[in-house]
Amino acid sequence: MQLFVRRYGTLIGFVAILVFFSAVLPGTFPTARNWLNITQQVSMLMVVAAGMTIVMVMGDFDLSVGSAASLAGIVAALMMAAGQPIWAAVAVALLVGLLGGAFNGAMVSLVGILPFIATLATMTMFSGLAFVVSGGKTISGRAIPEDFGNFARGGIPLGEWGGVAISLPNLSIIAIVVVLAVWVLLEQTTYGRRLYAIGGNMEAAHLSGIAVKRLRLIAFSLTGLAAAAGGLMYASRVASANPVQGSGLMLNAIAAVFLGTTMSRHGEPRILATVVGVIVLGVLDNGLTQMSVDSYVRQVLVGALILLAVAASSVTQGRR
Amino acid sequence: MSLNKSALAFAGILLATTVLGTGAALAQAKVAIVTPYMAQPGTQFYVEAFEAVAAENDWEVNVIDTAGDVAAVISRIEDLVVQNVDAIVINVDPTQVTAGLQSAKDAGIPVFGMDAGADPLLVTNVTSNGYAMAAETSTYVADRIKGEGNVVMFVFDAFPPVQVRGVVADAVFGNFPDIKVLDRVTPDVSDGGIADSRAKMEAILAANPEPGSIKAVWAAWDQPALGALQAIEDAGRSGEGIVITGIDANPQAREAIAAGGNFEASVAQDFAGIGATTAEAVARVLAGEEILQSVTYVPTKLVTAANAAE
């Protein structure tokens, strides 16, 4: 019974939220259009949280993802403003994320600094770099090619629903692809199983011949890459880039992964559980806005929810 | 402990939100204000004045603060469009939320800018004339230092309404051959702007120890001016006659100006006027009127020791 509570409490809560909003907002909440909106609204967080899941599987953290996302957006925007093609700007920005992540990985695995401290430092560094290269400016307007902003507004048409044309947003598609890629990586490959082994017991993993240092380095690089992708999606959505715009992603990504961990057997992060965590956060924002709940009360509720979910699972875990 | 504990907890939260959410039902028009900048002192004045006019009109107002997250502004506009509100007011650079504005336009919901920026997707943007305000204080500085000496500028180009102020001050100072802009500082505003401006000013003072080597500090808004004032006073250099100006004339700045120290002038934006004028624009459009000006300017006023106490 307690295991049931631990594993399915959050899921039941999630379903309760959906039922509740559908009952209170029957005309707008459970519509295809609203759900497609939600998938688009959470897409950036989804990508960053998926990347965060990779390092959190090993019991590590990456506090720098928000700054890396901002930096990637700024780098791409500056290149586009300088007349470079969009594909080149995107490629370089992703590379910056990958290298930033690799730097985190090197600090953590090769130098041996605690991830919390190493990524706290790089968080400040990436943020500072974003300010340095942009001069503190928001890059927007004509500096950003229309196609870049239009990408986030586009999608694959799905036909009509209740007289309104709906489409699957491009950003949602990217999020789905990234989640699938991380799912394959973590659940279907030896690499993924080894990350879980490191998360279970790093010493034992090392003694059993797993190249812990190399795997951690790669994991942090992938998290950085995902953060950059999230930052580019954000930049496309707001058709602009400023040096702080990704900063809100970090705490939400960690929150989503934690919410997810309350659904797995031993409290370890699972990518599909992270997906539920992200959607819980997105649905709360969407539904509470539609109910005209004060935005500060909304923040308190979201925080309380995370505490409750994690507390419920850890209390029952302690009793076992 | 047989019943599912976390499900119970979720139920409690949901119950609480029902109570909160149904508090303001049955009003006539639904109007929402979305801003990422609620923590800025000015924003609260707009919103309060807007709400006062809204109360007279018996509107249901939903104020949404995304706490600095611009993409969340788009998300919340999408939610409001799904909810089919009657009008949306934004307080953010409209070019960054085009996706949301477009979905509002497609649904036929009018969007108004409250000190946002002009945009074809907005009915109108109600604001102070930032160019004029910066011209007031930068010419005040130039006149006070008799057109010569080193000036330190505090700017913030990431926020368009503040960025235009810097542009005008650059032009005014550039037009005086003997005025030299010693430094053009962008302070870190995450703590409100005073503390970091103070630290930056302390460093500049340390680098320029000669009395008279800094003639004036021109700040694009009040917080850096206050930070610079603290730095100058603490360095024991308030007797050098360094002229400080800000913009916005917030209560702390007015107090400093009234005290008669180095902080000599600021410009008062009529925040309440902007909020009220925005609400009046919403009322006009809801009544079926068409608004032609893409920008609606609300007058500002230079604040010096003569009128700071008003």
TL;DR of this structure?
The complex is a heterodimer of chains A (320) and B (310). Chain A is mostly helical and 320 residues long. Chain A is built from 14 helices and 2 strands; from the N terminus they run αααααααββααααααα.
Share of helix among residues of chain B? 40-55%
The biggest chain-chain interface is: A-B, 66 and 55 residues
H/E order of the elements of chain B?
A: HEHEHEHEEHEHEHEHEHEHEE
According to CATH, what is the class of chain A? Mainly Alpha
Number of helices of chain A: 14
Structure characterization notes:
- Chain B: This is Sugar ABC transporter substrate-binding protein.
- Chain B: It holds the Pfam family Peripla_BP_4.
- Chain B: One of its GO terms (molecular function) is carbohydrate binding.
- The complex is a heterodimer of chains A (320) and B (310).
- Chain A is mainly alpha-helical and 320 residues long.
- Helices cover 75% and strands 4% of the residues of chain A.
- In chain A, helix 4 runs antiparallel to helix 5 and helix 7 packs across helix 11.
- The mean pLDDT of chain A is 91.
- Chain B has 310 residues and is of the alpha/beta class.
- Chain B folds into two domains: 150 residues, Response regulator (Rossmann fold), CATH 3.40.50.2300; 139 residues, Rossmann fold (3-Layer(aba) Sandwich).
- Helix content of chain B is 44%, strand content 18%.
- Chain B starts with a helix and ends in a 7-residue tail after the last strand.
- Classes of the chains: A mainly alpha (320), B alpha/beta (310).
- At the A-B interface, helix 1, helix 2, helix 7, helix 13 and helix 14 of A face helix 1, strand 2, helix 3 and helix 4 of B.
